[in-house]
Task: structure prediction
Amino acid sequence: MPPPIEVHDLTVSYEKRPVLWNIDVAFPEGQVIGIVGPNGAGKSTLLKAIMGLIPHESGWVKFYGEPLATQRLLVGYVPQRESVDWDFPVTVRDVVLMGTYGKLGLFRRPGRAERELCDRCLEQVGMQSYSRRQIANLSGGQRQRVFLARALAQESRIYFMDEPFSGVDAATESAIIDLLRQLKQQGRTVLVVHHDLQTAPEYFDSILLLNMRLVAFGPTRDVFTTELLQKTYGGRLTILSEAAEEVADTRR
Amino acid sequence: MTGLLERLAVLVQSGDWSEVAGQFVRFWSLRDPSVRTVLAGMLLLGLSCGTLGSFIVLRRLSLLGDSLGHAVLPGVCLGFLVNKTKDIRWIFIGAVASALLGSWLVGFIRRHSRIKSDAAMGIVLSGFFGLGTVLLTRIQKLTAGSQGGLNQFLFGQASAISDDDLKLMGCVTVVIVVCVLAAFKELALTSFDESFATAIGLPTRGMHYLLMTLIAVAIVISIQAVGIVLLSAMLITPASTAYLLTDRLKVMVGLSALFGMLAGAGGACLSYLGNNWPTGPLVVVVLAFFFVSAYLFSPRHGMVSRQVRRYRQMYRTRRENLLKSVYQVAMSGSPVVSVSQPAPVCISLELLAKQRGESPAMVRRQLRPLVGRGWAKLAADQVTLTETGARRAAELVRNYRLWEQFLTREVQLPLDHVDRDAENIEHILKPELVRELERQLETDQSEKSPLPFGGEG
Amino acid sequence: MGDFFRNLGDLIPPFEWRADLLAPWDSSASAVSSMWTVLLGTLVATACALIGCFLIVQGLALLGDAISHTVLLGLVVAFLLTGSVTGPAMFVGAAIAGVLTTALIAALHKTSRIKEDAAIGVVFTSLFAFGVVLLTKLAGHVHLDTQHALMGLFEFSLLDKTLIAGHEVPVVVLQMTSVVVVLAVAIRLFYKELLSAAFDPEWSQTVGLRPRLFHYVLMAALSVTVVSSFTAVGAILVVAMLIAPAATAYLLSDRLPVMLVLSSLAGALSSLIGFHVSYWLDASTGGSMVCVACGLFGVAFLFSPRQGLIAVALRRLRLRLRTEEENLVRALFKLAPESRPIAARDLATSMTLSETRWQWLMWRLRHAGWLESITADGATSTVRLTDTGLREALRLDRTHRLWETFLVDRVGIASDHVHPTAEEIEHLLSEQLVEHVDDLLGHPVVDPHGAPIPRSTQSDLRPGTYALSKLRVGDRGTIVGLDATQLGRHVDSVARLELPLGKPFRVTHRDPVKTSWTITVADGQTWELSHAQADCVLVSLEGTGKL
Result:
């Protein structure tokens, strides 16, 4: 059986500047995987490139051996909270219900089954009592949980989460950890962009160290070593970003 | 089909060309005093709008100009009501007040509700304009005023600029230019980084309101000539054009004022040629022409220069690749040579062609740019690298190896990925970066396989 | 200046409800024409409102403005190609112009350093100017003029009629009806795509809902709506009908479907009222409609129940009054902790309030039952706190001191800076949060200034039982059980303590550094409990049984 996500030779540029160089990796099934690296290392970019949100210059990505176009329904996404306007006139339930839209197809509208699913997902993240609230009236952690519930409603086999732990309260943090554990028990694969080195080893089964290129990927205890972290966060790779600047200059 | 041609014919038919040429000469000879007034007026408002426009564009308030342009209409009507005549002073006061009220209202709505600034601007723009139309239709009924007056306000009529108007425009322009020059530093800083400006104690709020007032005033003097609907272009387009051409604020303000003036004069001239067509759209068409030209041909940011740069890079890559392969073919099997003293290099075209998988004629053609640069000499069936050529080739090979080493050792890319990246980037690496790479790899060099041509230079 | 007001007065004729409200509808001929006008206005407003909602929620209001102008160029090009500015040619031309405008703006700000707002400004003014110039050149050949396109001519647009089932129906009304129907059906069919594309386009793309396609579809729909409304109200007034009713609804509702309905209603209402206003003032119909639409927005802006200016002001006022009341209660408590009667004048001088405000404040407090007057003869009146008032004062004092402790201990603000901040916040904190802070701080006994912190009066789990952690040195009680909700992973450590269940004990020591409680029973045996353990142990108190 092919791996859930296989990335081959992926190079991505933002505004003509290469930000990811030749990423080659295959993620194993049923694990919670952290993507860790310094600011500007291209963590979110990697996630978005894998999901086809950013065009890549070279390489390909396969989900269970198939290209993304045929596998969209297998992929759930939890974007960063800042990516939407929280004044938008929708309730918590409306947002979670959106998670079911992908499966419905054109013209079909969510029915009873979908609404029940959405209630279950809300319960899973402990937000059932907020379901009729407008999203503007939620705290940061609650907003994060709404996004998680929406992703759960997608019922995907693979989940991508972009910095779910950043700036959330303790209750949300433990809710997310519980959720990650459950998803893992159900044999799903979860990729989490994470920036906090302290908590990384306790959250993740495997870790991908990233700084414009893949520094290391493997089980947490093998990868989370001083030497490799030094390499990820250390100065030797600045040449890559300098070279990226020059590439951008000539392409401009 | 014939219908289409007929309709297109209407577009291009333009009476008697000699007559148009005569009009053109008459306009620019400036013999007619009214032409002088019009031209002076257009230049003045081009200057004031262009100067202010830069700050508007930099502050991302472009569409506020549009809102304010529409928001003056009720003020104009109320100003008219004072004496029931087109008394320029009252109209001016009414319009400025109404524009300022509009700009304040946009901020007020945004601060006190969840309405975003775009919707707030839209509401103010259309609400004021709606009120203006009601007042206008009402006034027209009361005074049995002519319809022509209305169209003038919408699209402007430069030929209607009177001497009184000109005086007002002059005063206003002087005030605007003096204010901008006096507060240039503050305006620049508050436009660039508002929070920093507040932190060092600049009156950011005050600067905002100063700018708003100046804009309102500039808008009001432009109504007569450009009209309400297209006013914002007079503010935004010259500044955007200048923004494409320069990176320095002072130059940008100057260029923007220049474009404003040129477009003003051009629009007035076209309107004159077309027997008093509405001036506003013509000015904007001229401005759009400037903008498109800058977008295409700006030396740094233009589309064309970007394409040229890209092609140049492409040719350079091709050229250098060829140079490198000449060098590598010649060097294969020969001992390591230093960059500083390259040996003369000479190979047959046939060998080179075989190596590159191309025909000898093709290789010969490709070699010509190398000859042109003095890197190589072409004989009947062989090519010789000159000293400069050989040195350049040695450098290239060296850069390539350095980069390759860096990628495999430091970045630990698999070998099959390295080659493509190295190919691309060796032509781009700057000397400083090469030195940095050398330094980084220095330690490894002594231990493992030495770099070719390393160190001696 | 005097002239100005006289002239302004001339401008506004007297309003007579019979003439201005009923006259348009009294004879059958005028009623029919009024009906068509109002109907056309309503249809235009509804179509614009439906599209407008999607623009407002995405912050695209000004793109709407831009497109309402550039469709003019689309019309001119359509005329050049087909020789007509009505029917399908008009719709196709407009839709192409709208999509082109959107694409040009996006291309401009993506491929150059021009920012989006400037890109919108440059593109729409240029395209519109180009359209106007072409139109001027074509004057006399095409049935459309620029002023008409901008301001609209309501009455004229209704003149062109056709026969349907024996009735004369204006063509433009039919056209608008079909636009509204198509829009409503399309929104219903593609609701989920439109909603998710508007809310979170990036996410929608990962799900395969094609947000970019629907964005352009929306822009094409916008152009079609604009161009068909064009003839009636004109470009600039179309902008108003796009934005104002939708913004009104945005202030009044929390869900998109509700917003769609409300905005259509607001649009219809503006059409009806606007018609009468224009009849009354004898002014432009479109302009009046727009004024009314913006007026409705103003009403919503002021009176929206949750977000309106007035609602917000009221909320603020209520908070200020409460702050005032609570401050007085605390002041009273400080002066006389045992709620002995004190002279009202002493208080009044410490509060710096005017006489009337003071009287009002006293009245409010008495009304709330927090205060009672002992002697009420003017200057020498004395007052004291009631039991409810005392409880309230203790709660406030506790909140205040806990918050101060929190700021000093956890946030690290110097203790002499703390007071003003604590003062503001104590009125806002919920009881739940205060208890959370108390627990976080290890149930402190004194605040950073050394003053005692009143204790919480809340029981735990059952009435009359308290967590041991709430007890202080000297308290006597009996352990009655364990709190299962707190026990969790401390179950073993609590069991290992072998606590003296049912025996009376006394709290003999509290260690503020370790945050531990030491209890001693009658025979001198002692136990030391950690914070977590003390939270689990439920006790009932000796004496009154209350803290």
Remarks:
- The radius of gyration of chain B is 33 Å.
